Amino acid sequence: MRADAPVLIVGAGVAGLATALAAAPRPVRLLCRAHDGVGSASALAQGGIAAAIDPADAPAAHAHDTLVAGAHHNDAAAVRWLTDAAPAAVAWLEAQGVAFDRDEAGTLRLGREGGHGLPRIVHAGGDATGAALVRALRAQAQRASHVQWRGGVEVDALLWRDGRVVGLRTRDERGREETHHAAHVVLATGGIGNLFARTSNPPGADGAGLALGLAAGVRARDLEFVQFHPTALDLPHRQGLPLVTEALRGAGARLRDTRGRPLMDGVHPLGDLAPRDVVARRVWQACQEHGAWLDATAITDWPRRFPTVLAACLEHGIDPRTAPIPVTPAVHFHMGGLSTDLDGDTGVPGLHAVGEVACNGVHGANRLASNSLLEGVACGRRLGERLARLPWAARGQGAARWIERGPPLDPGSLAMLRQLMWSAAGPQRDAATLRDALRQCGRWHGWQARLAEALLLAALRRTGSLGAHWRRDALAA
Ligand SMILES: Cc1cc2nc3c(=O)[nH]c(=O)nc-3n(C[C@H](O)[C@H](O)[C@H](O)COP(=O)(O)OP(=O)(O)OC[C@H]3O[C@@H](n4cnc5c(N)ncnc54)[C@H](O)[C@@H]3O)c2cc1C
């Protein structure tokens, strides 16, 4: 291994950016699909970051809410570490130039979201928190002398030699391939929303990094746990749907059925602010009948507080200040992923994973709102600091080989696969539909179908309902 062999980080969302910045002074090459680093889920995040900052709050209370939302399937020690690390993660972001919203007295404004017992969500630019974060971290990364930015590339294979990952292959928009050698490779490639017909995720959240990690032999963990956001803007015939942030319900908006009756009355003690899986199933059920609406007409000061939702609604002819917003559940976040510890270690030498592509147990069976930007920042910093200290591996002499994820599906088959996943592995699942979907997947040759099979199998094996994984046949199982 050359003395200057860098750390290669795939992905420029919050997880990849935090890892890159914290790895200083070790040389880092940051690889991502868009030239300017846009296109990540991070940039779309609306609600904010959860942290026990208020004097009346405590990390233990944040941990408690995280465990309850995760149906206690979480790794409790990991949750304690993350919630303890949250206030410092917010302070670090401010030091990187993120201007969180403050009141006239200069105190951080704290929002409240579903599943949180107290207001503890810091936000920036109202509902444009993710964009503010990515902008600040990207500017820091572009200024940092140890970070080399390489946008406009797709990472499509890992290089393997002498029992470890020693590099990767990129392909640019013109199809030109390049081999990059590395001391360490980090996958920070985000989620899998685009395996489904309805998602709040950007098109790049396609599971490519997850598929590559699995091909390299990383163990999959909790793949069946997919979070469905209860309120995406219901636009017929569209796959990628704008999110209608949960912070609106925190500010008093109510879910209603077609006759204007409150949807969540009598369903859960927290009503409209019940955990996401509970609300998503109720909205899904209403959508199967006559539809579901979010009545946010009582909310004031839209342009300052919810500029992103206001703009998305107005673009589609809905004025949320005067009319209820039509909503549908949509795939939002993947709790499962490549099995790692809190250090991002995958168990495959030379390969690390962080952020949504990884599963270190903090989210359990269902993620608490606003905990994933937190995870990306806190775990990214932890991994980066560790990478800065890790010894260089000796240069291997053995034969190198490529680990590939395989050819992609053609667009027609991919559209059918997404529809299949939405109906079989959506908010409600049962054994017969999952088995049938597995049989249909077997007909397709393409890495997305293999990834879908892994998820369907995990959902089939978990015969009971837990968190976001809901088996309507659980009682009969
Ligand atoms: C609409 C929306 C709103 C959300 N709101 C919140 C919120 O308020 N609070 C919260 O905590 N969480 C929120 N989330 C979830 C949160 O944004 C994500 O879980 C988190 O940002 C994931 O960060 P990441 O860095 O792991 O991945 P991402 O931000 O998705 O970044 C992935 C990166 O990997 C790159 N990439 C992927 N595959 C390849 C490849 N093969 N080759 C090269 N590059 C590749 C992409 O280009 C991208 O740069 C929201 C998500 C969405 C979609």
Automatic annotation (TrEMBL):
Q: Which SUPFAM superfamilies match?
A: FAD/NAD(P)-binding domain, Succinate dehydrogenase/fumarate reductase flavoprotein C-terminal domain, Succinate dehydrogenase/fumarate reductase flavoprotein, catalytic domain
Question: Which co-factor is required?
Answer: FAD
The entry's protein name is L-aspartate oxidase
Q: EC number(s) in its UniProt entry?
A: 1.4.3.16
Annotated metabolic or biological route of this protein: Cofactor biosynthesis; NAD(+) biosynthesis; iminoaspartate from L-aspartate (oxidase route): step 1/1
Q: Where in the numbering of this chain does the FAD-dependent oxidoreductase 2 FAD-binding domain appear?
A: 7-373
Q: Which residue ranges run through the membrane?
A: none
Query: What organism is the protein native to?
Result: Frateuria flava
Q: Which keywords, in A-to-Z order, does the entry hold?
A: FAD, Flavoprotein, Oxidoreductase, Pyridine nucleotide biosynthesis
Q: What class of enzyme is it?
A: oxidoreductase
What reaction(s) does this enzyme catalyze? Answer: L-aspartate + O2 = iminosuccinate + H2O2
User: Family per UniProt?
Assistant: Belongs to the FAD-dependent oxidoreductase 2 family. NadB subfamily.
User: Where does the source fall among the domains of life?
Assistant: Bacteria
